[in-house]
Amino acid sequence: MKSKRIIVLIVLVVLGIMFWNAFSQKGVNDLQTDFNAVAFYRNENNTGPVRRVYAVTVSDTLWTELEAYGNFQPHNKLGTTEVFFFLQGSPHPTQLQSSTPYFPASYNSGVVAKYEKNASGLVSYRKFPFR
Length: 131
What we know:
This protein has two helices and five strands.
């Protein structure tokens, strides 16, 4: 009977550690910069490559935080995820198109950074991509 209690205790401790690790991971809300997603596009293809495009306003250009925000966004195998960052208060698109260019060229000057994760999972991060 004593060995059964020890096994149950070990299982409970392991489960507790697993739950704590699962729910204590950092996320977008842990970043210092204020992020606000103002436009989003996702294609309707659920069987092939999924394309996600975000337009996000930011309160500051902390470059490492912008890249971290991009890393937190969902990504599918064989799909692409692109995030365009705009400073708060600058003109930004409210709708995105299904193909490039995703928004009118008049907004290009407001893009402070572009994050892209391609189908292979490789990350491209560029500051001021349209200059």
